[in-house]
Fold this sequence. Notes:
By secondary structure, the chain is α+β, with helices and mostly antiparallel strands. The protein has 16 helices and 19 strands. It folds into four domains: 94 residues, Uridine Diphospho-n-acetylenolpyruvylglucosamine Reductase, domain 2 (2-Layer Sandwich), CATH 3.30.43.10; 119 residues, Uridine Diphospho-n-acetylenolpyruvylglucosamine Reductase, domain 3, CATH 3.30.465.10; 103 residues, Alpha-Beta Plaits (2-Layer Sandwich); 85 residues, 2-Layer Sandwich (Alpha-Beta Plaits), CATH 3.30.70.2740. α1 packs antiparallel against α3 and α13 runs antiparallel to α14.
Amino acid sequence: MTLNRNDFTPGSPLHKELAELAGEENVLTAPEDLIPYGFDGTAAMKQKAICVVLPTSSKAVAGVVAFAASRNIPVVTRGSGTGLSGGSIPVEGGIVLCLVNLNQIIEVDPANLTMLCECGVITKAIDDAAAPHGLFYPPDPGSMKISTIGGNVANNSGGLRGLKYGVTRDYVMGLEVVLPNGEVAWLGSKCVKDVAGYSLKDLFVGSEGTLGIITKVLLKLVPRPKARRTLLASFDSMSAAAGTVSAIIENKIIPCTLEFLDKKTCACVEDYAQVGLPTEAEAVVLMETDGHPAVVEEEAEAMAEIAKEKGAISVEQATDEAHATRLATARRSAFSALARIRPTTILEDVTVPRSRLVEIVEYVEEVAKKHNLDIATFGHFGDGNVHPTILTDETDHEEMERVEMALSDIFDKTIELEGTITGEHGVGLAKKPFLPRQFSDASYPLLRQVKSAIDPAGLLNPGKIFELDGESE
């Protein structure tokens, strides 16, 4: 029997038991309280929640999961709700388990270069806490000021510094995970070398809440860079911009940031942020190098020269920290700037080998013309991660049909170019129909086998990434 909101009303047996586990004030059932939990950052996706639980400890999380498992109730885990794949959208008859109250940094360990924190800690707060110790947490998703580390781990989030420093997975040394039956497992350790058994922690990183619920994370930290230089180069073609990126890496320079904005994005960002971007350029590349001061100066000069050799219209070097921050903020504000243009903004996420960047960007332009859509493109040129951003209106059903056809075309082209349909946002609901196109061999059934082995009842975030065998796709 499918549960509804009435089954969780105050005074009901289910509500009483949840209140005992998590606290009366942490169980939400009033319709007006549930509204914010019916959607996440994904455009055109929503589902009414019937009950939201906000536990304050790992023990309470385990208790709620065991409670749900004993009654065959689905559980969808949620952090700040910034996801862009529909991964934290509620499911019918299920509980939303929001973990923002597990927000304590438990330990900073400079001797071992680690930090232990609860899953609800805001991403930027982790780097802020590391800084006084001369340490650095590099992963920096665009939502770092509001997204939680648990959500970052669950989606294996990336960010602007991915080229040099990698993504979230590269900094996870250990996890506390609540399994589908409510049992708790610790995976990993502070040891730099640890090959005891399967690397189970890596199985849960990027699992999008479908295998277990991450409650604590042990993170690797690195020494904080002593210097940083930021440059902005503008080009009259996307191919010249991409050629610059390739040449920089061919010259054995690995900057911490190599970002790009197309002309449409650049104009929107400048109108929004007023930072002096060259709106006449077809492409703008943000370059940033960090590390030892002498190396930083050398690399900054080399990148500027390479950009000029590849035909840059202009190369601007940040004059001070404030200027550098303004330039970086311009890139980080791309989504916000574009979101002002139309009622609905669909921020997509595909990745191709760097050598195919120009092909995918030019193809996106072709798709926009083919389907008569307004599409801007920006992203992480350094690691091949492109964000085609469709400006549309979800209430216009005819236009949304064209949007779906455009996305299908883009995903097919991405796979043709030996790319992946998602580089950092995850699969969730939004990309579930397209996953079999990429996993076209025995790897797709293998995903289901892993899910079935760990969560045989299919209660954790059901219907996300794929359906279990026997359920409709």
